Structures
1.
Amino acid sequence: MESSLDYGAAVSPGTVRREELLPLAAALVTVALWASAFVAIRSAGRDLSPGALSLSRLVVGAVALGAVIAARREPLPGRGDLPAIVLVGVLWFGIYNVALNEAERRVDAGTAAMLVNIGPIFIAVLAGVILREGFPRTLVAGCATAFAGVIVIGVATSEHGVHAGWGAVLCVVAALAYAAAVVIQKPVLTRVSGLQVTFLACVVGAIACLPFAPTLAGEAGDARGSAIAWAIYLGVAPTAIGFTTWAYALARTTAGRTGATLYLVPPLAILMGWAILGESPPALAFGGGALCLAGVLVARGQIGRLRRRVPAAAPGA
């Protein structure tokens, strides 16, 4: 008891405040970068097809993350963890990226961000099945509310044609892919650092997207410089820097508190989309987005319990 008091007296208020502010700052950097990714994808997607954009982003991200891993000299995971990491790479970095890139050729950045943000609901549902978390009433009510929001957004986008309606469906597919990856990686993260898992999954995603290499080679020559710049930005900023700052914040505060900052992603993506691209979601979609957010909040009690077993994660766009 006495040693605890001595320790508390030795820690200055300034040090405590710094230890609180740095994780928050890191989380907010991540939020801003992941929100900007929706805008970057929308812009670069005008010149680069979904597969080509995914490959370029993942190659850049893998190189950048690899440099960080080498500098930290992190050990490689054991062979037993590799199958799960491969599956995470295919789902989160492969399918998620291609589906989201294709979706954003059909819907604006803000709408995509609102739809992908239902991922935590999918995580809780999958955990109920795979991790035997069960299905409490709050989770069921939250799911119903969130999916009502998805339907509203689907109706709002379908007013712009079937093309846009399929964009909403693809956003839900992307959210499901990343949610499945989060649940799969849960046991791996007890033995391997989040940064190492992210790097290896990014490499796997790049390998999975290699069939798009000829397409990328053909499109890159005709693409505007801004599209290439956005593709590089996606690999360096939202992928390499964003996941690194997220890991820093998550390691220094609670998963629930860090995860709560992710609710800022959709409004920031909407604001950036309006400021940079001159786009905004259909009016009705805002109501659907509010329902999606309400559904996540209703189910948050269950999600909070899940986060104590599954480290917080987000789409990262």
Note: DSSP finds 15 helices and no strands in the chain.
2.
Amino acid sequence: MDRVTTAVSTQPGLGPVPGGFDRGTVEQFLYREARLADEGDYDAWEALWTDDALYWVPVGGEGGDPEQQMSVIYDNRSRISTRLKQLRTGKRYAQAPPSNLRRLLSNIEFLGGRDNPDGDIDLEVGANFLAIESHSRGTHLWGGRNTYRLRRRGDELLLAYKKVVLVDNDQPLPTLGFLI
């Protein structure tokens, strides 16, 4: 097992990488999360999230306080569920017909640990991504950096937080009607 025991980031609130997270298992989880979103398997994708989850796509760089600044997406668990219900109806016109998507993940790093409400420590992971979207309006490349917080529940991993920083989030964005 490939385990990392030291933090590679000095972000505020980020402690050492918690023990017990296997690199291969974490990478497979992230790859599965991307594939489920790409394939529109919304039930399986939604099942990956914790009840206190946050999904954030900031505007204008890394983002500051999402409660005080505009975001492309800033969803709690309830809003994630509502967004998925809208996609399931087939009546989300920005996605009629649905985009064909494929994501590539790279540069996966264990960044450190963060306390969670259960009294345990979540693993914070960073990864670069490139998403290729093909739609009737054309093909678009979406690139950026994801930050994930993974939480252990028994033998499974769950997603407690996902932040997607698009490289061009300081410019007007075309329709973003899919899961990024």
Note: The helical segments are 23-38, 42-46, 77-89.
3.
Amino acid sequence: MKKSIFILAVIIAATPLAIAQMKNVEEKRDNKVEQKLRRLSDQWLNAILRKNKAAFGALLADDVIVTNSDGKVLSKEEEIADKAPAAYVHNVGYGIRVNETRVYGETAVMTGTFTKRFDYRSHGGRVWWLSQRFTFVWVKRGSLWQIVAAQYTVIED
């Protein structure tokens, strides 16, 4: 009886330590995932800059749902055409800033700002900027992280 009480007391005393260690392991894993997703968001931007449809498409799940800043819901093909058009568009600069990434196991939510610079001076126009807040929902499928949902909202100047 005394031995059972002693074992129970040891288990109860060790439980907070075990929980703290598990939490520490989870935080390290989440930090690695967050770093991986930040690198993937940089790849997302580079694919747009290079108009690399294959690289851009690899980051999007086949069943991705994209809500653009006009409120239209786009398919994967429509998002690729919108962000990496084949024809020359006067987008001469892009930037991305990730504000926050929260990891929930095999799913993560990322928020940030995506900025485009347009230059129409060669056509008598002007230079202007378009900034959008974004939310990406990433899901790990097999060994790949892909965007399964994206939402863009224009930030007014």
Note: The two ends are 73 Å apart (CA to CA).
4.
Amino acid sequence: MRKKAMFKSWRYNVLTKEHLRRLMADQILPQGALTDTWHVNNRVNMRLLDGLTDQQLAATILPRGRTVTSYFVHMHMARIYWLQRRAPALAKSLKKIPGGTASRASLRQALIDSGKAMGELFAEGERSGRMKGVKLGPVAFLGYALGHEGHHRGQILLHLKIAKLPVDQATQWSLWSWNKI
């Protein structure tokens, strides 16, 4: 009974969605900050992709499990999904990739194209201060998108470590050098 009461009181001390919305509306961000941050994230993905060998891209740790390539394909397909719901015109020009079947060159181009389209989505979100289908606005959606892609980069690194094909140290450290990317 006591735990329930503690949880209930804690829950009410958390900021509400409306309170967060008002706080974010009051923030002054330099024009282009969200878009620039998104593009840095995309360059981190490209740096990781470029730092992998063909053997690493094809690596899987389970007989019928995902390959490293499929994580990158998933990121691209998630971007298409987000764009179809928030800016269908931007999604129309993007090519879907069948699950896990992509050459390095086609995967690279797909991530570049979907990264640009997402950048345009964030630029429009910055101009209008709103984003279709996102109650908390463009800043919250950027956080969600960065979290999603960062999660999958971590999965890729762990996947390769378990497969005994770890990413070289220079590539690993470069993923954290956002000021230089």
Note: DSSP finds nine helices and no strands in the chain.
